[in-house]
Amino acid sequence: MLWQSRAGLLMAALPRPCARRALKMACTASCHDQRLPRREGVRLSRSPGSAVLQSRGLVSAASAASAGPSWYESLADSTPVHLTEGLLALTQQATGLPWWASIACTTVALRTAVTLPLGTYQMAIIAKIESLQVEIGELAKRLRYEVSVRAKQLGWSEKVARYHFRKNLRRIVSELYVRDNCHPVKASLLIWVQIPMWVFLSLALRNMSLGVSDSSRAFQSELAAGGALWFPDLTLPDPTWIMPVSLGLVNLIIVEIFSLRRTEVSRFQKYITNFIRGISLVMIPIAATVPSSMTLYWLSSSCVGLGHNLLLRSPRFRRICRIPPSRADSETPYRDLASAFVTKYFK
Length: 347
Prior knowledge:
By secondary structure, this protein is mostly helical.
């Protein structure tokens, strides 16, 4: 290097002690010169805070890019929802009705063709289960006597005797359910069909009202002009809150019809009834923030459900559908319902 050659010339020209001191000074100066660019580089470099912020920004950008759509967006973009959109569009084009009437008619048709038969089947299962309660009670008394006799013979404790009683009673009840083809799980079939249908129709109307995809964007302008009366634009929420409040009232009426029918209500059933009442009230502000097309569908579905519940109470309809009679049946169900409602809330 250059400083080494200069040091060699100085050492050759100077005496040995002076040469040593000159070489030491040259080495110190050289090291100082080599450190200066590093210090200047540190001054010109970015601060640690800016580097951390930049790294955090890159990480957040990478995580945002790698994160997929949410479960709600995935459900709204699913195949059943798109098929439901096509069903709604096909129905409106085939009937030629305005969109508000087409949504209401489609709701009535689907609820009548799908949920009414399932509701009838549910009532038949419930009636069979209620008719079995008398037989189950008699068999339980006989089983309790046999278990007590067996416990005395074998010296069972009360805990062991209770275990055998419950085990054999569950077996007997299962055999009765199989014999009459009325397992309680079958009564829940209506819920497993009605809830997905409600979700798919709601999301389909939401996509068509907001134009979230290319296929649904074509119907947004039609829905914007497909309303009536106080809701001319089905893509906007109901500004008067008439439909949301009506939705809450209809749902509360349905809940009260079920609660008035039961004479003996357990604590768990009371909790469930109050929970459904709370959901009916919460649906009012929710319905006031979504497009009017969704609120119209919800209101139409609730009205059809109320009509079906009243229809399933008719003795003539129950005889036509061959629903077995139960202890809760009455020849004047509507009069009894009105009197129970008046007694509960006005007396």
